[in-house]
Amino acid sequence: MKILLIRLRLIGDVVFTTPIPRALKRSFPDARITYLVEPPAAAVVAGNPYLDEIIVAPLPRGIARLAVDLRIVRQLRRAKYDLVIDLHGGPRSAWLAYLSGAPRRIGYEITGRTWMYTRAVPRPRALRPRHSVLNQWDLLEAIDGWPGGEPDRTTDAVEMASDAAADARIARRLAAAGIAREHELVVVHVSAGNPFRRWPEPAFTALVAGLAAASPARRIVLSSGPSDREAANRVAGQARRLLGAESHRVVDFGEFDLAELRALIQRSRLFVGGDTGPLHIAATTTAPIVGIYGPTEPVRSEPWRDPRLSTAAAEVTGLRCRPCDQRVCEPGDFRCLTTLRPEDVLSAAERAMNDGA
Question: How far apart are CA 268 and CA 256, in angstroms?
Answer without folding.
Answer: 15
